[in-house]
Amino acid sequence: MPPEEPGRITVHLDRLLEERGMTVTELAERVGVTPVNLSVLKNGRAKAVRFSTLSALCRELGCRPGDLLDYEN
């Protein structure tokens, strides 16, 4: 029996940035990652995210992890 297709994690970084009037570059500087790496996450191409990065994103965006990430079956 083949394994089930995994669900998909979606990232709501665009919406959060827009709501806060912040750019990817500004957030990247505040969090301590490169704008390229943040764009990879924003576009849903990241394979993983460190808890320290997730914590820093939530701190700077004033959100909870569930506001940033979602699971779609």
List keywords for this structure.
globular; mainly alpha; 434 Repressor (Amino-terminal Domain); 73 residues; 5 helices; single chain; two-stranded antiparallel ribbon; 2 strands
Fold and architecture overview:
This protein has helices at residues 13-20, 24-31, 35-42, 51-61, 65-68; strands spanning 8-11, 69-72. It contains five helices and two strands; from the N terminus they run E-H-H-H-H-H-E. It is mainly alpha-helical and 73 residues long.
SSE diagram, text form:
Blueprint lengths: L7 E4 L1 H8 L3 H8 L3 H8 L8 H11 L3 H4 E4 L1
Helix pairs in contact: 2-3
* Major sheet attributes: 2 strands, antiparallel
In the CATH hierarchy, what is the architecture at level 2? Orthogonal Bundle
Query: What is the C-alpha radius of gyration, as a whole number of Å?
Result: 13 Å
Structural class: mainly alpha
Portion of residues in beta strands equals 5-15%
The CATH class turns out to be Mainly Alpha
Overall domain count: 1
